[in-house]
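Consider the tokenized backbone below.
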């Protein structure tokens, strides 16, 4: 096992080295590449999992202080890769055991079936994981503004007078989830431009490079699912609702009502809006972690979030083929 969820602080450097180790261990189905650099010069990692000709995209760590999902996404990659790699052997073992059934047979059979599902998922899809779109912000939230190497950027961040625990932005103080050039995007001030940030452009390029079937963006908090897009036709929204309802059943997360799609006064420009409008394929924002959780988020949320998201990604894949 490479990814441990027990260490309180899971740094960006650790994420990169673990991602490389995973790609080495599961080299037949997992590729490590980078899709750009953050403004403070950190690589933005992309892990390509699977052998399928179809693509789906999963993103995490857009907002700095939402520190649970990036290590959880890596853990899911390891979990899926492991199931995939051991699936044939597991099937053989189970066949042998059928001649001398043991008490655990039902549980093992169930696990084998789950393995079969993941095996088929990764034969159909290559899942493009961007576990941490905003590595600079993530490090600010974990360890403070000293982690920013570029003095100019550090000064800019400090001038905003927002605590590291509440930090949502990248190292230029921009909220990346208000930086995508969607139709409802509005500038917040004279200097504000859509797609001004390296990190947003890395994701936009990825969207354009792969003709994907769907996109999930994982945020925190609220245990809720955003699916409704007022700008999209009814046919698009009914498919979104169908997916959201299935994900609701397996996670117990709430569906966000259409009228709460965007808060009043919000400047728009979310990842999912951009994706929906430009590619006309399903795109949902999934908010993990209890609404009442305080920042910094307790690392123990990783365990339950892992259980929830491993089902979400699989279920989403099965619905967008
Ligand atoms: Zn967020």
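A designed sequence for it:
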């Amino acid at each position: 096992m490479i990814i441990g969820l027990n260490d309180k602080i899971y740094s960006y450097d650790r994420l990169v080295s673990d991602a490389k180790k995973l790609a080495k261990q599961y080299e037949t189905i997992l590729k490590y590449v980078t899709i750009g650099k953050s403004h403070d010069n950190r690589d933005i990692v992309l892990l390509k999992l699977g052998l399928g000709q179809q693509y789906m995209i999963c993103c995490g760590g857009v907002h700095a202080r939402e520190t649970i999902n990036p290590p959880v996404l890596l853990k899911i990659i390891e979990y899926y890769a492991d199931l995939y790699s051991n699936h044939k052997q597991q099937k053989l073992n189970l066949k042998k055991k059928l001649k001398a059934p043991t008490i655990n047979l039902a549980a093992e059979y169930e696990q084998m079936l789950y393995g079969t599902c993941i095996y088929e998922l990764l034969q159909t899809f290559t899942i493009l994981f961007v576990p941490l779109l905003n590595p600079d912000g993530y490090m600010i939230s974990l360890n403070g503004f000293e982690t920013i190497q570029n003095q100019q950027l550090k000064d800019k961040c400090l001038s905003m007078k927002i605590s590291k625990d509440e930090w949502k932005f990248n190292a230029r103080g921009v909220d990346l989830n208000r930086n995508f050039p969607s139709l409802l995007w509005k500038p917040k001030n004279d200097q504000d431009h859509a797609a001004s940030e390296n990190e947003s452009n890395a994701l936009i390029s990825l969207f354009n490079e792969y003709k994907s079937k769907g996109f999930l963006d994982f945020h925190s908090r609220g245990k809720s699912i955003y699916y409704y897009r007022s700008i999209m036709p009814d046919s698009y929204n009914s498919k979104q609702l169908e997916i959201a309802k299935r994900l609701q059943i397996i996670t117990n997360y709430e569906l966000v009502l259409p009228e709460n799609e965007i808060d009043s006064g919000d400047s728009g420009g979310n990842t999912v809006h951009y994706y929906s409008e430009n590619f006309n394929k399903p795109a949902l924002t999934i908010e993990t972690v209890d609404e009442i959780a305080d920042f910094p988020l307790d690392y123990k949320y990783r365990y339950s979030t892992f259980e929830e998201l491993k089902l979400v990604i699989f279920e989403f894949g099965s619905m967008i083929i």
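The chain has one domain: 12-51+63-319.
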